[in-house]
Amino acid sequence: MNLKEIPTVPPEGKNKEEVLRKTEELTTELSRLQQKLFSEKKHSVLVILQGVDASGKDGTVKHVFGGVNPQGCSVKSWTKPNSEEIQYDFLWRIHKYVPAKGMIQIHNRSHYEDVLMPKIFGELSEDRLKERLESIRDFERHLSRENRTLILKFFLHISKEEQKERITERLSDPEKKWKFDPSDLTTQDRWKQYQEAYEMILDDKRRQGEEWNLIPSDKKWYRNYKVAKILCEELKKLLE
Polyphosphate kinase-2-related domain spans which residues (predicted)? Predict the structure, then answer.
């Protein structure tokens, strides 16, 4: 896979106002489906949001899941392992935040960070990276079989130019400055390495069974629509 060939913008002909209207309908439908999931308690859903810094993970949570009953949905954001977590295998901390039956669990970043970051910064050999990917496949298969967990993976795909613009906005807008982290600039400096690392995990989808959904995310309104649409389609398959 070459991410340069994957679009980051909506297809031609997409009308913003029409898409916004459809998104509102989808988020209402998502709320209904989540209530059914919660009441039946037969399945659980793990939503994985991955993407480079400023790709819109927080915004997706806010705009797509804003109308979902918080009793049946929770969010966990992942950063570097802390002093306790680093003493265990890399999936130990993840397993504590998988969804119970009836729940939607959103992971803002995920266990894939423990493959992406070592790949980008050259901290693990290619063999060790492959071993971690294999462990992830086993982990996800275990969740699917043992707890009937539907795993939905979203890669929020933005261009280097769009990311630079968003980071600049964070620095200049007092209401968004809190989002800025000096590490955000690392992505611009290592853009090629980040793209190669993501291509590695996205290419691995054929062997994992749970395919990634590549979401064009330069336009936030289209990103929200695509994520909401896929969520509703997959939940309907699961529940109806």
Answer: 15-236
Mean pLDDT of the chain, nearest integer: 93
Q: What is the CATH number of domain 37-239?
A: 3.40.50.300
Measured CA distances, 13 to 7, 18, 19, 158, 213 (Å): 14, 11, 11, 19, 21
Token pair recorded at residue 214: 């590549």
Closest CA to 52 of 169, 186, 152, 142: 186
State the greatest distance between any 2 C-alpha atoms of the chain, in Å, as a whole number. Answer: 51
Rounded distance between C-alpha atoms, residue 112 and residue 48, angstroms: 9
Is-above-0.85 flag for pTM?
yes
Domain spans, the chain: 37-239
Looking at residue 128, its amino acid is: R
